[in-house]
Amino acid sequence: MNEVQLTLPRHSFSARDAARAGDVWRLFQEVAVDASTQQGWSPMRYRAEGTAFVMRTMTVRHHLEATYGEPLTGLTWVARMRREMLSTREVRVRSARGAIASAKQEWVHVSDGVIAPVRAPRALLDAFPEESGPEGDLEVAMPSIARAIEAREPNVFTFRAWWTWMDPLDHVNHPAYVDFCDEALSVAMRRAGLAPIALAPVAEEVTFRSAVGADEETRVESVPRGWTDDGAAVIAHRILVGERLCATATTVRRVLGEDGPSSLVEILR
């Protein structure tokens, strides 16, 4: 189990000084990378040995919105390794105020020139033994839908991926897909006369299937699925390049200042 001390940079915060969901995902990535470095596997070592982990699925629950300059503690461990290629990493971020966010990450080991999962080298496996979480730790899971609705045609948001978005593996880094979904919702809110700044994260889960590359015309299709028991909107998304499905996602969001079920569902419906 590894512990990391960190803070969110200023550009992670919206105009109401609340950390964006995608930047909380980037924070989780920093915790995982720092923990890996502590165990002797820095990003440069992965590159030198021609090995890497890529994200398959990530589930996040938001507990409190982080504030700028707030000291944060990240705790992370590998909970499971399957077939020497599929790694489940748990990450928790806390402040003096309490839990900020929790994540369950499913990573796939790959190597240079190999798209499919491959077995990790023994030195890498030995660096990350399976561990149990702290006493009382709860499983990270998505909220259930208390009131479901039938979806119609999806809300569609399109954009072209920037060259300057490319990460060290030369594709869009996985937290950006959360930005894509929230931008699609923000555009829909603005069209309906709501302030996008009021969008607040509750939870999200993204499963990655194919990478978005530079200069690719990308489409986000968003469909409302219903509400949680406390009225947060549950929205399903598909992220595509042409007919190629790059990711599926579910976001759970509320609009600050609203009473009752979130208007996001009706806006999208």
Give a verbal description of the structure.
- The chain has 269 residues and is an alpha+beta fold.
- The protein folds into two domains: 2-127, Thiol Ester Dehydrase, Chain A, CATH 3.10.129; 147-268, Thiol Ester Dehydrase, Chain A (Roll), CATH 3.10.129.
- The protein is built from five helices and eleven strands; from the N terminus they run βααββββαββαββββα.
- The chain has helices at residues 21-38, 43-48, 122-127, 176-191, 264-268, and strands at 2-6, 51-62, 72-82, 86-95, 98-111, 147-148, 155-160, 199-208, 217-227, 233-241, 244-255.
- Strands 1, 2, 3, 4, 5, 6, 7, 8, 9, 10 and 11 form an eleven-stranded antiparallel β-sheet that branches.
- Strand 10 (233-241) and strand 11 form a beta hairpin.
- The model has no long low-confidence stretch (mean pLDDT 95).
